[in-house]
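Suppose you are handed only two things: the residues of a chain and a line of SMILES describing flavin-adenine dinucleotide. What would the bound structure be? This form records exactly that question and the answer produced for it, so the two can be stored side by side and reused later without any lookup.

QUESTION INPUTS
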Amino acid sequence: MSEARVAVIGAGFSGLLLSIALARLGFEVDVYEEHTGPGVPPHCTGIISRNTLSLIEYIAGPLPGSLIAQKFDGVTICSQGYCRAFKVLGGLIRLDRPGLDRHLASIAARLDVRIHLKTKVTSVAPDGKLKASNSVKAYDYVIIAEGARPRLRVELGVGCLEEPAYGVNYITTLNPCRLGRYEPRTTPLVAFERLESPGYLWAFRDDSHCIVGIASHSTRDIRRLLNTLRGSLKGAYGGPIYIGHTVRPRLRRGRVTVFGDAACLNKPLSGGGLYPQALAVKRLLDSARNRSLARALTDSVRSVHRTLEASAHLSRLALRRPKLVKCILESIKDRLGPIEYDNYRRTASQVLSFTRKASLFSCDTIGSVMGVIALLRGALESTLNPSLVSHFIRPRG
Ligand SMILES: Cc1cc2nc3c(=O)[nH]c(=O)nc-3n(C[C@H](O)[C@H](O)[C@H](O)COP(=O)(O)OP(=O)(O)OC[C@H]3O[C@@H](n4cnc5c(N)ncnc54)[C@H](O)[C@@H]3O)c2cc1C
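ANSWER OUTPUT
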């Protein structure tokens, strides 16, 4: 159905990437953004795999080199005082996130996408009518890409409706660069610790700063980290983020569909959204011709949800039980090669095939049993017919 009119609410990463794909498919696209420009205020660290970079470039064309702020060959994972460095397949990149959003907006504009800045959408109806700047407009399709904080989607009962956690990056002086007892060196460091609410911490260096971050549902966790940084703090940025969430929400009501963070397109452990969102847009681009947009979009999002679901239980367990993470790190045999960064189910099976199971079980027996159950549940839910699963396990409207 090309030349149909589509409204995308939100000029964040997901709304912009999707609008580029829609313009390429021949749709007439209006993007509504309440802020003064794309990418403001910044909230994302911007660390992605090379694989995710390729997905973004498949949709938006080659990115200028200036958008790549840093390259890393791996990641260091720590828990309860124990750290282990891993190489990552293809390596990692840190993008200039506000710059990326501005770049995507310029590509979209070149494809005749109209981006309405400083225009807040105040209501959306299932029949495709939306209200923005006190005028009502009608669209064939409306896509809510409003980010992690549930607002417009609440009334429609679509998308991720769970309360997100809060993620914050503290910019601190380079020397000393410390996250509690850990010190990041050449790779980003991710730490699983006992927090008030399930969450995790991270730290990395760039040329001039040390960035220390946390994602948690508890403001006390966030304040506690802040208190350790007094004297070295230079600034901070952050926003709501989905971690440890349930994937597969209801995606569509009438002519309205959700996308991006709003559709729970986030990796369940880290909350990283760029990989699942870019993957869903690619799948849409590859499959949408001659199909209803709403159907093609929900199908592509569901297929990515199935991949995420496979690791969701395991991710929640890792966030809640840092002891298990420590036991896994300690039980890994040395010859583990580069790990997969985006698909946690694959990462988990890679890591587990290199762990000494007996020492893992004796280190955290309860956690290991819970891990086996989490793996089995993930495998079952991601392979069974989703409508059958939702019928028996999680009824949805
Ligand atoms: C601290 C932190 C660190 C992160 N680090 C990473 C990382 O390293 N790697 C990674 O892959 N992901 C990371 N993420 C997640 C990533 O930022 C998101 O998945 C990504 O930005 C998805 O964006 P989105 O377009 O769905 O939402 P957003 O980027 O939040 O964009 C939504 C847009 O919609 C606009 N909007 C909302 N409501 C309205 C309305 N009613 N009318 C008009 N406009 C509206 C908002 O102003 C906003 O611009 C991080 C997130 C946080 C908070």
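WHAT STANDS OUT: Residues 391-397 have pLDDT under 50 and may be disordered. The two ends are 27 Å apart (CA to CA).
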